[in-house]
C-alpha cells in the first residue's frame, strides 16, 4: 500500500490519508435528483469517485461505497404532473437511465443506492431529535435548522457567518429566525407527501444524506464527495446537522471535484439550452471518461467537442494496441497474467501509483499509461519474446482497470486459432488463393 495524500476541503489542505478502520474506506457521494437524464457535468463526480474507489481497491482496501438517489423533489413532482405519472414512475425511469449512463461510462453500479423514499421515517425521527435538542424549530408546519447554534458553520466553505447573513438577506422568509436557517421539513399542498407531527409534507434536501450515512455506516465516514457546487450550502448544512446530532463533521475527508463548463463564462445550466446529455455523446462514451481523467479532478474543465474528438482518437489507439497485444499472446496461449519484474515496466507502474497516491493525479497516471502503450507498440513491431509482452499486458490491465477503461478480450476458440494458423501458413507459402479464402472466413467471424 502506498502512502496516500488527499486534498481535504474541510481543512483546505493536502492531508495524509489514514483510514478510520485499517484496510477499510467508507465513501459517500451525493447522487442525482432523478427527474431527468444526466448531463456531462453531472457525470464528472460519478467518474471521479468511481476512479477513486478503483484505486483504493487496487491498493487492497475494502471499500464501502454509497451514493443516494434524491427521489423526492419539486422537479420530480412537476414532471410527474406534466406527464400524468406518479413520482415513483418518474424516478424509477430516470434511475434506470442513470445506471445505463454509468455502465456506458465504465462505472461500477454495484454500490449502495439508498433512496429518500425508503428513509422518510428515519428522516422524521432525525428532525424530531434536532427539534428536541433545540437545533431546529417548527413554524406553521415547516421545520427549520437553527444555524446560529453551530459555531463551526461556514468552516467548510471558508465563509464568515456575517458575510453569509448579508448575502442571504435577498431571500425574505418571515417564518425563519435567520435568513441562513434552512428547511428540514416542508409543509406541501401538491405532490407526494407524508404525515409528520409538523404537517403533511416532505423533507428538505439537506437532511437525507446525513440520515443515510448514519444508517448505512453508523459512524463518521472516511470520505464524503461531490461536486464543488455542493460545498455551500448543501455540505455545509450536512455538517451542521451532523455536529448537532452526532458531535462530528460527518466525514474525515471532504473531496470536491471542479466544475465542468461549456463556455467562457463557465456555465452549463439547463436554462441556457446548451446541455449535453451523457446518452447523446458521440462515439464510445469511454472517450469522455478518458477526457475527464486527463484533467485533475479539482481543476475546472471546459468541455469542447474538439477535445472529445482528440480523446476518442487516443482511446482508439490504446484499444487497437491492446487488441493486437491480446491477440498475439492468445495465439501462443500466453494470455495469463504474470509478475511484472522488468525494470522499465516497474518504473512505469511506480510512477503511475505515485501519481494516483498524490490526490488522485489521473493526468500524470495517464501519461504513464500512454508511455506503456508506446512501448507495447515497439515490442509488437520487434516481435520480441513473450516474457516482456506478458508483463506489459499485466501492467496495462492494471492501469486501465483503475482508470476504468480496460479492454475486455475474449480468447479465441481452438478452432479459430487453427484457422488463423492456416491463414498465416498460406501467406508464408505465398498461396494467395488459399490465404484469401481463410481471410474471408476470419473476417466473417470478426476475428480480423
Ligand atoms: Zn448530500
What is the strand and helix layout of this fold?
Layout: E1 5-8, E2 13-16, E3 24-29, H1 40-58, E4 62-67, H2 74-83, H3 87-104, H4 120-132, E5 136-139, E6 142-145, H5 161-168, E7 182-187, E8 194-195, E9 200-203, H6 205-217, E10 221-227, H7 231-246, E11 251-257, E12 260-261, H8 286-293, E13 301-302, H9 305-331, H10 343-357, H11 362-382, H12 386-403, H13 414-428, H14 432-444
Parallel strand pairs: 3-4, 3-10, 10-11, 12-13
Antiparallel strand pairs: 1-2, 5-6, 6-7, 7-9, 8-9
Report on the structure:
The chain has 14 helices and 13 strands. With 448 residues, it is α/β, with parallel strands linked by helices. A five-stranded antiparallel β-sheet has the order 5-6-7-9-8. A four-stranded parallel β-sheet has the order 4-3-10-11, with helices on both faces. A two-stranded antiparallel ribbon has the order 1-2. The longest helix is centred in the last third of the chain and has 27 residues, at 305-331. The chain has three domains: 5-257, Rossmann fold (3-Layer(aba) Sandwich), CATH 3.40.50; 305-403, Four Helix Bundle (Hemerythrin (Met), subunit A) (Up-down Bundle), CATH 1.20.120; 414-444. The two termini are 41 Å apart. It binds zinc ion. The site of zinc ion has 4 residues, from α7.
State the helical fraction.
Answer: 40-55%
Number of helices: 14
Class of secondary structure makeup? alpha/beta
Biggest sheet, strands in spatial order?
5-6-7-9-8
* CA gyration radius, whole angstroms: 26 Å
Amino acid at each position: 500500500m502506498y502512502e496516500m495524500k488527499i486534498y481535504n476541503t474541510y481543512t483546505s489542505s493536502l492531508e495524509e490519508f489514514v483510514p478510520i478502520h485499517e484496510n477499510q474506506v467508507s465513501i459517500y457521494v451525493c447522487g442525482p435528483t432523478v427527474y431527468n437524464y444526466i448531463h456531462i457535468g453531472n457525470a464528472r463526480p460519478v467518474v471521479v469517485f468511481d476512479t477513486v474507489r478503483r484505486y483504493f481497491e487496487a491498493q487492497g482496501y475494502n471499500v464501502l461505497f454509497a451514493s443516494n438517489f434524491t427521489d423526492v423533489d419539486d422537479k420530480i413532482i412537476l414532471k410527474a404532473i406534466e406527464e400524468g405519472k406518479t413520482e415513483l414512475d418518474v424516478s424509477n425511469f430516470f434511475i434506470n437511465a442513470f445506471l445505463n449512463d454509468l455502465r456506458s461510462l465504465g462505472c461500477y453500479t454495484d454500490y449502495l443506492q439508498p433512496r429518500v423514499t425508503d428513509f422518510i421515517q428515519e428522516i422524521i425521527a432525525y428532525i424530531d431529535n434536532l427539534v428536541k435538542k433545540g437545533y431546529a424549530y417548527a413554524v406553521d408546519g415547516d421545520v427549520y435548522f437553527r444555524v446560529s447554534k453551530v459555531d463551526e458553520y461556514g468552516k467548510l466553505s471558508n465563509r464568515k457567518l456575517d458575510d453569509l447573513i448579508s448575502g442571504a438577506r435577498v431571500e425574505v422568509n418571515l417564518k425563519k429566525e435567520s435568513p441562513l436557517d434552512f428547511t428540514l421539513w416542508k409543509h406541501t399542498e401538491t405532490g407526494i407527501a407524508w404525515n409528520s407531527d409538523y404537517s403533511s409534507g416532505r423533507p428538505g434536501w439537506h437532511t437525507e444524506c446525513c440520515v443515510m450515512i448514519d444508517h448505512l455506516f453508523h459512524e463518521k465516514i472516511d470520505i464524503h464527495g461531490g461536486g464543488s457546487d455542493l460545498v455551500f450550502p448543501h455540505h455545509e448544512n450536512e455538517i451542521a446537522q451532523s455536529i448537532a446530532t452526532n458531535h462530528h463533521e460527518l466525514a474525515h475527508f471532504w473531496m470536491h471535484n471542479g466544475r465542468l463548463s461549456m463556455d467562457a463564462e463557465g456555465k452549463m445550466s439547463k436554462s441556457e439550452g446548451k446541455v449535453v446529455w451523457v446518452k447523446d455523446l458521440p462515439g464510445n462514451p469511454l472517450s469522455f471518461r478518458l477526457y475527464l481523467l486527463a484533467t485533475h479532478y479539482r481543476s475546472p474543465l471546459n468541455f469542447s467537442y474538439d477535445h472529445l474528438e482528440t480523446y476518442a482518437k487516443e482511446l482508439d489507439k490504446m484499444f487497437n494496441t491492446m487488441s493486437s497485444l491480446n491477440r498475439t499472446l492468445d495465439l501462443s496461449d500466453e494470455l495469463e497474467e504474470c509478475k511484472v519484474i522488468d525494470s522499465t515496466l516497474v518504473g512505469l507502474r511506480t510512477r503511475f501509483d505515485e501519481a494516483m497516491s498524490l490526490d488522485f493525479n489521473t493526468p500524470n497516471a495517464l501519461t504513464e499509461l500512454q508511455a506503456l502503450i508506446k512501448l507495447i507498440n515497439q515490442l509488437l513491431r520487434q516481435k520480441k519474446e513473450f516474457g516482456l509482452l506478458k508483463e506489459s499486458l499485466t501492467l496495462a490491465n492494471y492501469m486501465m482497470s483503475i482508470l476504468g477503461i480496460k479492454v475486455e478480450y475474449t480468447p479465441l476458440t481452438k478452432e479459430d486459432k487453427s484457422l488463423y494458423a492456416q491463414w498465416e501458413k498460406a501467406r508464408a507459402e505465398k498461396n494467395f488463393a488459399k490465404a484469401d479464402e481463410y481471410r474471408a472466413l476470419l473476417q466473417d467471424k470478426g476475428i480480423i
